[in-house]
Amino acid sequence: MADVNDVVEKYASLIDAAKRARENAVAPFSHFRVGAALLGKSGKVYIGANMEPDVMNLGLCAERTALFSALAQGERQFEAIAVYSGTDEPGYPCGACRQVYSDLAPDVLWILVGDKQVKIEKLDDILPNRFVLEDLRR
Ligand code: THU
Question: Residue whose CA is closest, atom 5 of ligand 1?
Answer without folding.
Answer: 93
